[in-house]
Amino acid sequence: MAEQSFELTGISSVALHAAGNGHAEYAHLPPIYASSTFTFDTAQQGMERFAGKDKENIYSRWGNPSFKVAEQTIAALESFGLKDEQGNPLQLKALLHASGQAAMSTMFMSNLQTGDTLVSHFSLYGGTYELMHKVLGENGIHTIIIDMRDLNLLEDTLKKNKVKLIHIETPANPTIQCVDIAAVTKLAKAHGIIVTVDNTFATPYLQQPFKYGVDFVFHSTTKFLNGHGTAIGGVLIGKDIEFMKTKAWKWHALLGGNANPFDAFLLTIGMKTLEVRMDRHCSNAVQVAEFLSKHKQIAHVNYTGLPSHPDHATAQKQMRHFGPMMSFELKGGLESGKKFIDKLQMCVRAVSLGTADTLLSHPASMTHYSVPREERIRFGITDGLIRMSVGIENIADILNDLDQALS
Ligand SMILES: *Cc1c(COP(=O)(O)O)cnc(C)c1O
Asked: Which of 171, 207, 213, 265 matches a 20 to 30 Å C-alpha distance to 338?
């Protein structure tokens, strides 16, 4: 087959072809390598493989050809069109994990030690917040939570504390808060601080954090990258290739957060349609937000595409579209929230996000039921708040379902 003489011009072509088209047995799609271990022809070959001179596989906790296809695709998506400091195409390495939480654990554990301090912000994913305060906290790693949209407060925090790492999640739950990646990274780099970004809500199609000089990006691939809700997964991506191949790889292998071949295959297939799905998710979301913001039963809509959202300008600056996630506040509190959810006929009642169909949840009666009311209200999770992951259904049907459930 002739080598490709032209560069790919868009994310869809990258998602479809980045991992190459030549698979074993001329299979069109990448095979699922359901094998825990791999064989050696000779002891000599085994030795060379362990020494890293022979790059073939050894054991699936350390790597598997089914993971590699997904990893190459994600690295290509996150680096698409970007340059490194020398002006060469940016090189990234991705490591697939069993879940977003596993990828995040590798990221924090390989970069932080007892006595270190990290800074992050309000409205983090629940698992991230708990990992910081429980797992990292119990291991002597201190987390400072601030409002990172206030850059003066961030600068002050960096002056007063010896900070090792800044973690950003943007856009973030449930208010769809956005943090300015470029501005935070600039401040961090002036202080020699590592910057990590949770890019789950945006995907590399809507937002490429490496453009602004961040060090690590991770995703829960469970969400929009997989796109169909068929598998839990996560990925850690880094630009320090040596670190990714040595420490990050080692920590991921020792903590045991490896992916599995079937889920990696589902992810690879899901990512092929990333661009067309995201375009439809996002155009539907804009129309849903406009509809809801005019509805008399709705007190407030949190969507960055609406000029009334406090982070509208930040989102516009760093994202291609405003994304598929929103939340809205029903007039009438807890009871009206429950009633609305119960009346939905097509849209699905479920937590999680990023599936092709529309998912709605009511945090006060579901994900945050066990959180004391005062505490959850402090995080913006009010009684009548509904979270919505807008799907790719025909827009009229989504609006009809919302309209009848609100009546
Ligand atoms: C789901 C999610 C995670 C955790 O990922 P899992 O795949 O559930 O382990 C982390 N961050 C964000 C923003 C998420 O939505």
From this structure: 171
CA of 379 to the centre of ligand 1 (A): 18
* 173 CA → ligand 1 middle, Å: 11
| CATH 3.40.640.10 correct for 11-271 | yes
pTM over 0.85: yes
Counting atoms of ligand 1 from 1, which one is nearest the CA of 101?
9
Query: pLDDT tens across 143-152, in order?
Result: 999 999 999 9
The domain limits of the chain are 11-271, 275-406
Protein residue with its CA nearest to atom 7 in ligand 1 = 100
Q: Determine the atom of ligand 1 nearest the C-alpha atom of 124.
A: 13
List residues near ligand 1 (CB under 6 A). Answer: 99-101, 125, 127-128, 169, 198, 200-201, 220, 222-223, 232, 234
CA of residue 149 to ligand 1 center, whole Å: 22
- H/E/C letters for each residue in the chain? CCCCCCCCCCHHHHHHHCCCCCCHHHCCCCCCCCCCECCCCCHHHHHHHHCCCCCCCCECCCCCHHHHHHHHHHHHHHHCCCECCCCCECCCEEEEECCHHHHHHHHHHHHCCCCCEEEEECCCCHHHHHHHHHHHHHCCCEEEEECCCCHHHHHHHHHHCCCCEEEEECCECCCCECCCHHHHHHHHHHCCCEEEEECCCCHHHHCCHHHHCCCEEEEECCCCCCCCCCCCCEEEEECCHHHHHHHHHHHHHHHCCECCHHHHHHHHHHHCCHHHHHHHHHHHHHHHHHHHHHCCCEEEEECCCCCCCCCHHHHHHHCCCCCCEEEEEECCHHHHHHHHHHHCCCCEECCCCCCCCCEEECCCCCCCCCCCHHHHHHCCCCCCEEEEECCCCCHHHHHHHHHHHHC
Please write the tens of the pLDDT for every residue from 40-78. Answer: 999 999 999 999 999 999 999 999 999 999 999 999 999
Q: What separation in Å is there between the alpha carbon of 101 and the centre of ligand 1? A: 6
Q: What's the CA-to-centroid distance between 160 and ligand 1, angstroms? A: 31
CATH of the domain spanning 275-406? 3.90.1150.10
Q: What are 250-285's pLDDT values in tens digits?
A: 999 999 999 999 999 999 999 999 999 999 999 999
Identical topology for domains 11-271 and 275-406: no
pLDDT tens sequence across 316-364: 999 999 999 999 999 988 899 899 999 999 999 999 999 999 999 998 8
Residue nearest to atom 4 of ligand 1 (CA): 100
